């Protein structure tokens, strides 16, 4: 180890779990990614199936947001515009692969919706067509359950991006999607666990075998650094500086940040490196990934989320934990202890402090509760 949005507009990052219609940007893929994602036997899918289904695993309707074989195929003109837009996002905007996949799926469904309304070019699309599509997403149908307000709003972001791009390129004279309103989304505050519950969660993770050591290290690191699950599984061994007690995280938009790691978490990582990782590495090809699966490959986001769910179940917190729970808890506990919001912003890797400020609302609510209980003039008169 070494020492040491909407895609079109976005500079503001919003966590998916705090605003479901979150704008996103992430690692810059190679330029050839766009061609791979839009090529292939299926005109709307491509070799990597860009354009199938919906990307929100928490939405019960999302898993079935794929193609209906009874729906008409969109015109070559519409398919071509979609391909141009995805190429633009991948090559010129450096949009993350996961975001490209999500946009492709949402726009695939949109083009089929237009085809069903006998619309063959973007110039023929009306505001009513866009509004009808959003309404259909919310209502569902015989072969597709209704999408949540958050998933429908995210789908509208993709549609707006396509029309905005077409308008900028001179393909259409008017951006008909610009004024279409998304479904109302109740904005909730991040849900953090109390410190005692976090400690129970950590204690409920892992064991003494290689997998248990890895799982304990994953959970400890998530809470100690505030990393997203995707950032944690993206770590390489050399990203952990044991002497400086820091971790180098690669966040959205390819932005890197150096964050401190606490002694308990570092001890868990070191125990895994010494007594756990070598066993898993022997089954693979000697890759650099910090967290390995049983076959010696890099641990996936889904597997890391399963680690967290298993620990939550063992701690009796199964209903209280989401993929972002430890990240929210990390930020909330820092704010409650008096950390400056700008410092928390840097630790979380937020592009804008406005995203971080949502945690001030959480701490203000906690302060109000203390005030109501402790201040003599805050209590109701007898």
H and E order: HHHHHHHHEEEHHHHHHH
Mean pLDDT: 80
> Would you count the extended β strands for me?
3
Q: Biggest sheet: strands side by side, in what order?
A: 1-2-3
Keywords: Cell cycle, Cell division, Chromosome partition, Cytoplasm, DNA integration, DNA recombination, DNA-binding
Organism: Actinoalloteichus fjordicus
GO biological process, one term: cell division
Subunit structure: Forms a cyclic heterotetrameric complex composed of two molecules of XerC and two molecules of XerD.
Describe the protein.
The chain is mostly helical and 382 residues long. The chain folds into 2 domains: 32-168, no CATH class; 195-371, hpI Integrase, Chain A (Orthogonal Bundle). The chain contains 15 helices and 3 strands. The protein has helices at 32-38, 76-92, 97-116, 127-139, 149-168, 195-203, 210-225, 229-233, 263-275, 277-281, 301-314, 325-336, 341-348, 353-356, 358-374, and strands spanning 240-241, 246-250, 256-260. Strands 1-2-3 form a 3-stranded antiparallel β-sheet, with no helix packed on it. Keywords: Cell cycle, Cell division, Chromosome partition, Cytoplasm, DNA integration, DNA recombination, DNA-binding. The active site is at 228, 252, 324, 327, 350, 359 (o-(3'-phospho-dna)-tyrosine intermediate). Belongs to the 'phage' integrase family. XerC subfamily.
């Amino acid at each position: 180890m070494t020492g040491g949005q909407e895609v079109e507009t976005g500079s503001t990052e919003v966590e998916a779990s705090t605003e479901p219609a979150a704008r996103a940007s992430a690692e810059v893929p190679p330029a050839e990614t766009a061609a791979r994602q839009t090529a292939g036997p299926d005109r709307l899918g491509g070799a990597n199936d860009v354009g199938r289904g919906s990307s929100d695993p928490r939405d019960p309707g999302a898993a079935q947001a794929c193609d209906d074989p009874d729906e008409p195929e969109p015109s070559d003109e519409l398919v071509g515009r979609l391909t141009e837009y995805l190429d633009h996002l991948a090559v010129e905007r450096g949009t993350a692969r996961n975001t490209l996949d999500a946009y492709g799926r949402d726009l695939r469904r949109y083009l089929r919706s237009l085809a069903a309304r006998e619309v063959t070019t973007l110039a023929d699309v009306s505001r009513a067509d866009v509004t009808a599509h959003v309404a259909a997403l919310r209502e569902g149908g015989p072969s597709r359950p209704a999408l949540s307000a958050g998933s429908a709003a995210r789908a509208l972001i993709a549609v707006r991006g396509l029309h905005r791009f077409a308008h900028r390129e001179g393909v259409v004279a008017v951006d008909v999607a610009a004024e279409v309103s998304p479904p109302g989304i109740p904005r909730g505050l991040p849900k953090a666990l109390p410190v005692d519950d976090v400690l129970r969660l950590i204690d409920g993770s892992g064991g003494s075998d290689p997998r248990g050591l890895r799982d304990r290290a994953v959970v400890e690191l998530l809470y100690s650094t505030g990393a997203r699950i995707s950032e944690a599984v993206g770590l390489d061994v050399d990203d952990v500086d044991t002497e400086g007690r820091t971790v180098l995280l690669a966040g959205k938009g390819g932005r890197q940040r150096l964050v401190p790691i606490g002694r308990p978490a570092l001890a868990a990582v070191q125990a895994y490196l010494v007594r756990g990782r070598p066993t898993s590495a022997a089954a693979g090809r000697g890759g650099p990934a910090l967290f390995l699966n049983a076959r010696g490959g890099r641990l996936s986001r889904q597997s890391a989320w399963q680690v967290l769910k298993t620990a939550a179940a063992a701690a009796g917190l199964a209903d209280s934990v989401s993929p972002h729970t430890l990240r929210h808890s990390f930020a909330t506990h820092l704010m409650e202890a008096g950390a400056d919001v700008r410092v928390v912003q840097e630790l979380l890797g937020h592009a804008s402090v406005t995203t971080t400020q949502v945690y001030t609302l959480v701490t203000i609510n906690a302060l109000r509760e203390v005030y109501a209980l402790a201040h003599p003039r805050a209590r109701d008169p007898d």
